[in-house]
Fold this sequence. Notes:
This protein is mainly alpha-helical. The protein contains six helices and three strands; from the N terminus they run αααααβαββ.
Amino acid sequence: MEQRKINEKEDPRVLRTQQLLLQAFSDLFSEKGFHAMTVQDITERARVNRGTFYTHFEDKYAILDIGYVSNFSSISRVPCSSQILGTSAPSACSFRASSSGSRSYTR
């Protein structure tokens, strides 16, 4: 089972789908803003099913976190979506990227 998860992360189809979703999110973020866009908007732009979106991301806040981190991966501390949007959250989280490329979330 562990080997399968590793292979899924390296599968070019998975990477391509994630890239399509991130690009669609980025385009819509620029056009509509975060609060106006929906998961349906993202999936229509990426030309994938909503189920596929949820296979890769929990919700649009998760894709915001991933998209923000991928754009600024060289920064050692990146705020979560709740901090970017100014919304209240039970706890703040941070993203750390080590020099070896491993990443971890902390809450």
